[in-house]
């Protein structure tokens, strides 16, 4: 039986109401999701702006140090050079101020106790250092399959030490065998062992070897 004009109009009105409800529910879910998941506070415009910036900020992935076993990436090469540079800048400060806190961030915690014992023996115990100059020479660098780097570092250190009332200048050459390791995509100093040492003091413009 054909529907009357009134019935057709009522059905159209019902469809319209259902559609409005769907739109309303969808809008509510979007707002609820934003407030619950994204934690956007609509009462605080500044907070909203902060959160939107946080949500939309791109995720920056740090490139790996190694692309294959024993092969540094370009990023890894730069990070290695920066590690050596920054370490020895802080090394000089640590000697001058006789304070190992300058170096702790560079050392893997598994090896820090041995490192600090060596450092204290050379530069802190029974010494009052007035000035320190450090230069280095690196040789025999080898990248291992476990993504560590072995190398030899020759440190030449000029120290001015106060001995009671006298200032004595020393020249110290330390040859270290060093292992640098990858810890969570960051270079850290691992095992470091002393291979050779030469100590001299300055007297009448000449270096007298101990």
Polypeptide structure, described:
- It is built from four helices and seven strands.
- With 210 residues, the protein is an alpha+beta fold.
- It folds into two domains: 52 residues; 144 residues, Nuclear Transport Factor 2, Chain: A.
- The strands form two sheets. A five-stranded antiparallel beta sheet has the order 3-4-5-6-7. A two-stranded antiparallel ribbon has the order 1-2.
- About 12% of the residues have low confidence.
Which fold name is given in CATH as the topology of the largest domain?
Nuclear Transport Factor 2, Chain: A
CATH class of the largest domain: Alpha Beta
Largest sheet: 5 strands, antiparallel
Major sheet: arrangement of strands: 3-4-5-6-7
Task: Quickly give the CATH architecture of the largest domain.
Answer: Roll
Number of helices: 4
Shape descriptor reads: elongated
Radius of gyration: 33 Å
Order of helices and strands: HHEEHHEEEEE
Beta strands, count: 7
User: Which structural class do you get from the secondary structure elements?
Assistant: alpha+beta
């Amino acid at each position: 039986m054909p529907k009357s004009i009134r019935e057709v109009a009522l059905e159209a009105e019902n469809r319209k109401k259902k559609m409005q409800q769907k739109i309303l529910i969808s809008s509510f879910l979007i707002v609820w999701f934003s407030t619950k998941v994204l934690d956007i506070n609509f009462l605080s415009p500044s907070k909203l702006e902060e959160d939107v910036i946080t949500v939309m900020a791109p995720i920056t992935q740090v490139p790996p140090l190694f692309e294959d076993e024993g092969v540094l990436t370009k990023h890894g090469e730069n990070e290695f050079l920066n590690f050596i540079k920054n370490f020895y800048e802080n090394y000089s400060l640590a000697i001058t101020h006789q304070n190992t806190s300058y170096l702790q961030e560079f050392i893997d915690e598994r090896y820090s106790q041995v490192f600090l014992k060596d450092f204290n023996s050379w530069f802190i115990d029974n010494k009052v250092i007035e000035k320190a100059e450090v230069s280095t020479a690196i040789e025999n660098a080898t990248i291992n399959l476990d993504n560590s780097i072995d190398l030899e570092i020759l440190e030449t250190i000029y120290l001015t030490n106060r001995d009671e009332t006298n200032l004595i200048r020393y020249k110290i050459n330390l040859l270290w065998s060093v292992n640098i390791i990858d810890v969570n995509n960051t270079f850290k100093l691992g095992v470091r062992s002393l291979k050779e040492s030469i100590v001299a003091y300055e007297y009448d413009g000449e270096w007298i070897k101990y």
